[in-house]
Specification:
This protein has 149 residues and is an alpha+beta fold. The radius of gyration is 17 Å and the shape is globular. The two termini are 30 Å apart. The strands form two sheets. The protein has a three-stranded antiparallel sheet. It has a three-stranded mixed sheet with strand order 5-4-6, with no helix packed on it. The protein is built from six helices and six strands, in the order H-H-E-H-H-E-E-E-E-H-E-H. It is 44% helix and 15% strand. Bound molecules: zinc ion (ZN) (2 copies). The site of one zinc ion (ZN) has 5 residues, from loops.
Length: 149
């Protein structure tokens, strides 16, 4: 569910990369495009599979730069292969279902009503700690249907 179009993403990417003295190169644009097309967080191998003229070493390097620029986020799981997706200000706010045995990650959205209730509860906790919240993460860890069978 993309809330902003490709032209806006290109503008955002250009300015966020410029702010860390990096350019929006052709390969970086390709990687952003692949992540935009993907319906869930994907691994470096899946990025390589969707574009055969990208070299593995350049994908590694470019993902690190895109991450540094705040355009791409890496989802931490307990398996070996990191998954990447576009940052929430590009994609939208969502949560993850992470299968521990197979490493599959799916996105899910909570209703606006539940998000609001969650925000309010979290705000109370933050207040107790004198903490100011930028955003929250909530991922479900467990076993998917395929791995349970
Ligand atoms: Zn996600
Ligand atoms: Zn949320």
């Amino acid at each position: 569910m993309n809330t902003i179009n490709r032209m806006d993403i290109d503008q955002l990417a250009t300015s966020q990369l410029n702010s860390i003295n990096q350019r929006y190169t052709t390969n970086r644009r390709k990687i952003i495009g692949i992540l935009q097309e993907a319906t869930k967080p994907i691994t470096i191998n899946q990025i390589l599979e969707s574009n055969s003229d990208l070299a593995q070493s350049s994908v590694y390097r470019n993902l690190a730069v895109l991450e540094q620029a705040g355009l791409v986020v890496r989802i931490i799981t307990n398996e070996d292969h990191a998954h990447y997706e576009l940052a929430e200000h590009i994609l939208d706010h969502h949560h993850h279902i992470i299968c521990s045995p197979c490493g599959e990650i799916l996105d899910f959205h909570l209703s606006a009503k539940i998000e609001k209730a969650l925000e309010e509860s979290l705000q109370k906790i933050a207040d107790e700690f004198g903490f100011s919240i930028d955003r929250h993460r909530l991922d479900l860890l467990g076993t998917c249907g395929d791995c349970t069978e």
